[in-house]
Specification:
The structure holds 2 protein chains of 2 kinds.
Chain A lengths: L1 H24 L13 E4 H10 L1 H8 L3 E13 L5 E5 L6 E5 L1 H6 L1 H6 L5 E12 L1 E9 L3
Parallel strand pairs in A: 1-2, 4-6
Antiparallel strand pairs in A: 2-3, 2-5, 3-4, 5-6
Helix pairs in contact in A: 2-3
Chain B lengths: L1 H18 L2 E13 L6 E13 L4 E7 L8 H11 L7 E8 L12 E11 L2 E14 L2 E10 L10 H4 L6 E12 L2
Antiparallel strand pairs in B: 1-2, 1-8, 2-3, 3-4, 4-5, 5-6, 6-7, 7-8
The chains are: A alpha/beta, B alpha+beta.
Chain lengths: 142, 183
């Protein structure tokens, strides 16, 4: 009788373990649209921080969700279809790659964006490489 | 007659712009690929920055490790935390020169080239020579390269448990479409 219980116990542990393992393996990417922004900032303030102290700003913001407001200066599409928004400065501003599933669900929001107008984006800051890289990002509409 | 002059001037100006100065691509593509028995691992970034100096054929590439995107979130986590240690070494860099560089290469149709330079990944410098192409494609200056690297050369330790599952070499693919810069 004892052996029977032991077998059941071992099997249960294996099944639970395998379940957790599979869940971790197939864990989906975080949905940036549902995440709360850890920092809310102006595009120009963020650019200042990165230009003055890149290392400090990288530690502070890298892999964090940021909500950034600034002037839209370019709206492009990359060869793979990703929508790209550039804030404040086309060469050394903030480059935001929009999340592909969010883009697919909100084409009208992207369509309505006009260069020269203010825009607010929320996305994961990846660091600084001539410009501040943010991806994936979504447009915040209020 | 006036028109012809105008056309010549415009052509001359655009040729001038193309044959001197620097070219930049802010959203260059870099991928690395490794085939494993379980599944293929493909990491892609569209956020590499590259500058090409047309006066001497020097090419600089930089990529943020955290911009590499994988099919599975877990792969991305392992890539950044276990292998590349992206917090410690956030960027990969390459600085090299096109062998036998001539300015004409930049306005000619796409042709094969060789680039020699230093690749810095995971904080380790290594001189490499890689094959590539450069030239005009669809009215744009395009450069590509495909080569293999061995993670161990860059001090990237792969745990013995998964050692056999990850290919010994990773295939790196690079594609950049350049625009004139600072003119």
């Amino acid at each position: 009788m004892k052996i029977k219980y032991a077998i059941i116990l071992v099997l249960t542990v294996i099944v639970i373990g395998a379940g957790i393992g599979l869940k971790m393996f197939f864990k989906p990417h975080a949905d940036v649209n549902k995440l709360d922004a850890e920092f809310k900032t102006e595009a120009s303030t963020l650019m200042d921080e990165f230009q003055k102290e890149e290392a400090t700003a990288t530690t502070k913001y890298s892999e964090k969700v940021l909500e950034i407001s600034g002037k839209l200066v370019a709206k492009n599409k990359l060869p793979n279809g990703t929508n790209l928004l550039v804030l404040e400065d086309e060469m050394a501003g903030i480059s935001c790659q929009l999340d592909s599933s969010w883009s697919a669900a909100n084409p009208s929001v992207i369509e309505a964006l006009q260069t020269g107008n203010p825009v607010t984006v929320k996305g994961v800051c990846k660091g600084y490489l001539m410009e501040i890289k943010v991806s994936p990002a979504v447009v915040v509409t209020k | 007659m006036k028109k012809i002059f105008l056309v010549l001037i415009v052509l001359g100006a655009s040729f001038g712009a193309f044959s001197q100065g620097k070219f930049i691509a802010k959203n260059a593509y870099i991928s690395f690929y490794s085939s494993t028995p379980m599944e293929d691992i493909l990491g892609e970034s569209n956020e590499a920055v590259t500058i090409l100096d047309s006066s001497n054929g020097e090419i600089v590439f930089q990529a943020l490790m955290t911009t590499f995107h994988f099919k599975r979130a877990l792969m991305e986590e392992h890539f950044n935390e276990n292998y590349m240690e992206s917090t410690k070494f956030p960027k990969a860099k390459f600085k090299g020169t096109i062998e036998g560089f001539k300015k004409e290469m930049l306005i000619a149709p796409v042709a094969n080239i060789k680039i020699t330079g230093v690749l810095n990944v995971h904080g380790v410098d290594k001189t490499i020579t890689v094959p590539g192409t450069i030239g005009m494609e669809g009215g744009k200056l395009v450069a590509t390269s495909k080569f293999k690297v061995t993670p161990e050369d860059y001090g990237i330790a792969i745990p013995s448990l998964v050692r056999d599952k990850i290919g010994k070499e990773m295939e790196i693919t690079v594609k950049a479409s350049y625009l004139p810069y600072g003119q």
